[in-house]
Design goal:
By secondary structure, this protein is an alpha/beta fold. The chain has twelve helices and 14 strands. Strand 9, helix 9 and strand 10 form a beta-alpha-beta unit. The chain binds magnesium ion.
Length: 366
């Protein structure tokens, strides 16, 4: 099954940000939802679909797929997924073991796993050793609103929609307090601040946040790879720490776990190195008794890949569903919507349905 074509397909899709307001603030001020789909064609006629992380970096990631990844894999046997992952990581190491290069490698890897499962005639989770019968809890991952009333409104709406846990992207206590009041005492709330603070600032803020019964505090410290600082906070603040969306490869997760920096590890399949690398991270976490909580604010093959991977984890954690509504869906309606607060997994061969060609045509920009 020779690889005869690798295409990066760029989409820009408008989206709605919530249920009652179009206001948006802060670094989550995305204008459009970016996609970099990776389409891999083989000489058997089978086509695989991958997904490289592209939010606010779509063009460079697509160029990396076209000019760094594609020339290295054309003519290779698509079944050699592990070998291709290894060779790409080795030959591209000088261009960065975190960031654009790894995002591009991730997109290719997801497409190869889609092909592997399609050629076996099985849904991907079967190849990963799971029967696909699990329902995995979803959590609502809110945007940043910097407005206590809006935050409370969206927390309430999330719970009405069946979510049993809600994650905030705020950095101030007023919004967290509003969320806790709206949710009531029994609903798990998480807080993702996206690396804004020095270690000292993080310690001060963690003390202020201690009264809100957070399930975890996510990425409190900048830079994200300062694992010793994260470990000191983790050991002293009394709130569980989550991180990992900004870590690529199992080696960076090994460093994170060796420092005992987190309670929850958050590999992101479109960034970490794809399904191949995610599985290595999962094994590491299992040996260190660290719970995985996949980072998955996606609407393409990366989301489907996360659903399959969760089926095969010893403890699947929760699936992140970013609380926005794209103008169109690459997949049949409802695929991104949890049922009774949980996600199942597609049963078709491969990742699931292929992306809708009409939607690709409509939103394609490169
Ligand atoms: Mg996050």
């Amino acid at each position: 099954m020779k690889i005869v074509g690798v295409e990066a397909i760029e989409l820009e899709m408008p989206f709605s940000r919530g249920v009652s307001s179009e206001r948006e603030v802060g670094f989550l001020n995305w204008g459009m939802l970016d996609f970099c789909l990776v389409r891999v064609e083989t000489d058997t006629g089978l086509v695989g679909w991958g997904d490289a992380f592209a939010f606010q970096c779509r063009k460079p990631v697509a160029e990396a797929v076209r000019h760094m990844v594609a020339p290295r894999v054309l003519g290779r046997d698509a079944r050699d997924v592990a070998g291709i992952s290894h060779d790409l990581q080795q030959s591209l190491h000088l261009f960065g073991r975190y960031g654009i290069t790894m995002f591009a490698i991730s997109g290719l890897d997801i497409a190869l796993w889609d092909l592997a499962a399609k050629s076996a005639g099985q849904p991907l989770h079967r190849l990963l050793g799971a029967d696909g019968s699990r329902r995995v809890p979803a959590y609502s991952s809110l945007f940043r609103y910097e407005d206590p009333e809006l935050v409370a409104d969206r927390v309430t709406r999330s719970i009405e929609l069946g979510y049993r846990s809600v994650k905030l992207h705020e950095t101030r206590c007023a919004e967290v307090a509003a969320a806790r009041e709206a949710a009531g005492p029994g609903v798990p709330l998480m807080l993702d601040v996206n690396c804004p603070w020095t270690p000292a600032e993080a310690a001060r803020m963690a003390a202020e946040l201690a009264g809100y019964d957070l399930l975890w505090l996510e990425e409190p410290i900048n830079p994200p790879e300062d694992f010793p600082a994260l470990a000191r906070l983790h050991g002293s603040c009394g709130i569980a720490i989550a991180a990992g969306e900004n870590a690529c490869t199992a080696f960076e997760f090994r460093a994170m776990l060796e420092h005992r920096a987190v309670d929850y590890a958050q590999p992101s399949v479109t960034k970490v190195g794809g399904i191949t690398e995610f599985r290595k991270v999962a094994t590491l976490c299992e040996t260190r008794a660290t719970q995985i909580m996949p980072h998955s604010p996606y609407f393409g093959p990366g989301f489907l890949a996360t659903l399959h991977l969760a089926q095969a984890l010893p403890s699947p954690g929760m699936i992140e569903r970013i609380f926005l509504e794209p103008e169109a869906s690459l997949y049949p309606e409802g695929m991104h919507d949890p049922v009774d607060g949980t996600f199942g997994v597609p049963g078709e061969a491969g990742l699931g349905p292929d992306p809708d060609p009409d939607v690709i045509t409509e939103y394609r920009v490169g």
